[in-house]
Design brief:
Layout lengths: L4 E4 L2 E3 L4 H12 L5 E5 L3 E4 L1 H16 L3 E5 L3 H9 L3 H4 L5 H10 L7
Parallel strand pairs: 1-3, 2-4, 3-5
Helix pairs in contact: 1-2
Length: about 110
């Protein structure tokens, strides 16, 4: 999606692999006004370490007036996000384009 950096996460995201994923997310979320989409479609497994990474990326993006979208298509992705109470925050979609539109529609920091 034009204007967005897509971080495609693959394989397993857990305590052992999270530091490597964090490096990519940190690089993508560093610039002010960054527009980032985290694509979880290729992920085979994730645990609470992945949720921590997503929350960290969200905080970094929002602190820099950027936008974050999340793509996931697997039902268990949604179940984990829902169980963690994070689906309303990330509003995951099934496509890159949908994630971009959802991210851009999110209120800016301080907006209610």
């Amino acid at each position: 999606m034009q204007g967005f950096t897509v971080v495609e996460v693959q394989g397993t995201v857990d305590l052992a692999t999270a530091p490597g994923v964090q490096l990519h997310l940190d690089a993508a979320t560093q610039p002010a006004g960054a527009r980032v989409i985290v694509d979880l479609r290729p992920v085979d497994f994730f645990d609470c370490a992945a949720l921590t990474l997503l929350c960290r990326a969200y905080r970094r993006i929002r602190a820099r007036d950027g936008h974050l979208g999340v793509v996931c298509v697997r039902p268990w992705h949604l179940r984990i996000l829902t169980a963690g109470g994070l689906d309303p925050l990330f509003k995951p979609t099934t496509t890159i384009e949908g994630a971009a539109l959802t991210a851009l529609a999110a209120p800016k920091t301080g907006d209610n």
